[in-house]
Structures are given as structure tokens and as C-alpha cells.
Amino acid sequence: MGRPRQFEIDAALEMAMRVFWSKGYEATTLPDLLGAMRISRGSFYKAFHDKRAVYLAALERYNRTRVLETVAMLQKAGTDSGRERIEALFKALAERPDRSGCFLCNAAVDRAPHDPEIEERVNAMVQRLEQGFRLALEGDRPNIDPDVLDETAKSLVVNYLGLQVLDATGLNEQMAESCRLQVSRMLEAAVGGGNGLDERAGDNR
Amino acid sequence: MGRPRQFEIDAALEMAMRVFWSKGYEATTLPDLLGAMRISRGSFYKAFHDKRAVYLAALERYNRTRVLETVAMLQKAGTDSGRERIEALFKALAERPDRSGCFLCNAAVDRAPHDPEIEERVNAMVQRLEQGFRLALEGDRPNIDPDVLDETAKSLVVNYLGLQVLDATGLNEQMAESCRLQVSRMLEAAVGGGNGLDERAGDNR
DNA sequence: TGTGTTTTGTACCGAACGGTTCCTAAAGCT
DNA sequence: AGCTTTAGGAACCGTTCGGTACAAAACACA
Hints:
Two copies of one chain form a homodimer. With 205 residues, chain A is mostly helical. Chain A contains nine helices and no strands.
């Protein structure tokens, strides 16, 4: 029925997300979006309602294609331990080639304070990330003290976001290694060695 | 020598800074600034060159009145230890009443990637903060291993910035306490001299 | 082939943008 | 006084903003 859509919503959304990601919400103009999405104004307003709706959809896409992927990576059972997967994540942060930062982090800083709906989704993503850390830690040590588990997972989130900010400033490289070592120490205290063995009695219960 | 200026540059800059702080650079319009600074367009362009120059001046003011104050607080000798001052800083972050976030952090995320001059000043401020942590730690333990000192100071910066991001999302409250405990552990390992704040040392609650 | 439906591209909208230039009144100086 | 500098307001610049209206185009189904 009717003329079929001549572009793919997902592909267009991916491009829109990248523009918002690199320029921020306010600095991104409609022509910026149209150029990146390779559609015209008419198609834009037909497929999405307005600029803000595209931003929300882009945020949702970031959640689906980036955050949930990360969470899945953190909790996927395999030959490696949860601690190793967490350390791998922070290592990847340290060795990132570009300086793209993190769309979630950008949204948190420049949109969340002014848009409750965005704040809500940002919070949900942050908590999903925390849950990823939590599951990875719990996988290594099922009988971990719930308070230690909670603190460690939350602290990992704080470190994760802090590194994302520094990535945007170009200081990531010199900071990430130090942060990585401290994270490693924190993990050692929380779940012990990478093999998951509990070598220190009374340490974590 | 002509008519004297009828407004105070510093006071106007303070107001401008608050507007940029809360709305971001792009979202702040000239009328926004004029209203907050309580000056007219004519005076604006006479005293400052343009919007960007005001932003830079506001950033400089943030450095002078906020960052340097914090650094001075961290390193001021007194009855308390450097560790106590660091913990007090993180405690203050946790108990912040508003959700204003951090202008430095905002600048890092939404301006630094697009303005080399801003990036440079943001980096300088971050490094000044790191230096503040470093001096506080060194004051407590002059013979501290330089590598440990460096790592700890950098990691404190990462935690500091991460908490600022979470403040913008409203998740600060539940995260800050966990982060504070982990920071306390990190400080215990780096300089010792715990004041009993780390209740879990050798005990599990 | 004709009809109905949906998408498409584009011309266009009013409003607001950052920035500039006037100009007059006001306030210091010698 | 007379000179000089600034203040502050208004009008205005060209541009760009997000958003809309509409007719041509492309399909599905009859």
C-alpha cells in the first residue's frame, strides 16, 4: 500500500546518533541530521516527529547496540572470569584509538538536566551498566557480601564514567592506566584473583 | 578619563558562568546572557568581544574561584591530614544539595572536543586538580612510592569526574556513598592512617 | 490501466539567532 | 566649561533555526 520507504530507519538512526554524539544536541542542526541521514526534510518529519524524537530514538539505539552489548559481554559465561571481563573492558577504554567519548555520558551531562525523559533513560542505562558489573562479580563469587558487591559495582560505574569524561578532553591516555590499576586492586579486594579463588579468609564473606 | 563602567566585570562574569553552567554553551542565547549579566548588548560587546570570549572568561573564573579553591583546600596544612581533606571533599560531593554538576565537567564533555583552546584550559584544570590530590597525599606520607602517588592521584580525579557526571543524572546520591567507601580504601592502601571510616577493615559488618 | 495510499523533495514559514552599528545621555577628567 | 570615554538602548543586519504545506512520484491492488 503506497510508496515504500526508500531508506532504512535503522541506518538513518545510526547516522543521526553519530552526529548527536559528536556535536551534542543543541549544536546539531536539522541540515546536519538530514545530510547524515541522507533524507529530506519531508521524510524526516514523516518518519520521526521532530528533532527531539530522533534524539530519543538515537539514545535508544545506543542502549541497544552499545550498552546492552557491553552488559552482555560482562556477564557472558566462558573460560574467563568476570573480573577478567571487567578488566578487559577498562583496558579497552584505555586503548581506545579515537576520542569519541561516550554518547551516554554526553547525554547525561548536557541533556539529562533539562529533559526528564532523557534523564530517565540515562539513569536506566547507567543502572544496566551497574547490573552488568554486578553480575560479572557475582559470577566469580556467588557468596560475595551484598554490600561489597553493591559498592564495587557502583564504584566501577563511577570509574567508567570518569574515564569517558577524560576521553573527551584527551587526557584519557595518561589517566586510564592508573585507573586500570586501581580498578584491578579494587577487584582483587572484592572477588580475589582472576581464577575466582578465595584465598583470604574473612575478607569478603 | 571618561565615564567609568557601571557594572562589575566580575559580578557579570559570575552570572554568565552560571548560565553557561546550567544551560550549556550552545543552548545559551545572547539574551539569556544579557538578562543574567544585567547589561545591554552595547556594553556586552564593548567589555567582551563576543559570546565565546565570555565563555572562556567564565571558565577562567571557574578555575580561579572553584578549582583553585579546592586545590588550596586539599593542600592546606592544618590539624587534619591530607587523607581527611580528600575524604571531606568526596563527602561534600556525596551530600551536595543541588544537582548543579560541575562546570569543568560540562566544558570537558560539550566544548573541549570542538574547541582546542577550551580543551587546553580544561586539561590544565584537571591536572591542577590531580596536583591537589598529589600534594595532599604527599603531605601525609612524604616517602610514598612515586608510582603509587601518581596512580592514586589520577584515580581520585577519575572518581571525582565520574561522580560529577552522576550528579547531572540524579544518581549521585546512591552512587556517591559507595564511591566514597572505595576511595577510602584506596587511600588506606596508599597513605594509611585511616580514621576508622573504613568500617570493613578486617570485619564484614 | 485506474485508483487510493504513502513517501518524497522542495518551497516556504515566522521566529530567533549571534553579531554590529548607530546614537544620546551620563560621568569622569583637565 | 570642554573633552573624552563609556553606558545603554534601539534598530537592524544576514543567516539559520525547527517546523509545515503541498504536489509530484512511486508503489499496491483492483
